[in-house]
Amino acid sequence: MKSDTELRAISDSVAFVGRMSDSIVRLGPFSLGIDGVLSWVPGVGELYSTLAGGFILVQGARAGAPPSALLGAAALLFLRTTVSAVPLAGALAADMFTAHKWAAAMVVRAIDRRLEGAPARPAPGPSTGLAQAS
Question: Which of 16, 39, 40, 68 could form a disulfide with 45 if both were Cys (CB 3.0 to 4.6 A apart)?
């Protein structure tokens, strides 16, 4: 079982990939990230999308996210990757469909629920045994 610190680190890395993939630059209600830029390069966009999506899913599984969250995130990521395969229109649709950010948010919420439900751990320190008299 992962410690709270490990779960937070996983959550942070998933959130980072989601932001970098879909939200580096914001223009009003629209945002653009690495995924949106690379979607215009045939083959490269799909490769990046698959690798970033795989990272989100693997990290979610490592953190013990429930299968429902992982399947929902996988479905979004699969749709995102397949839509970009359509010439020209696919790249434009991929720019608008911020699946990495959404999938990352699903996984982060699942990790947060695990953290909220985790039993409190005692703070590290000396044992609570009786002190020896000097």
Answer: 39
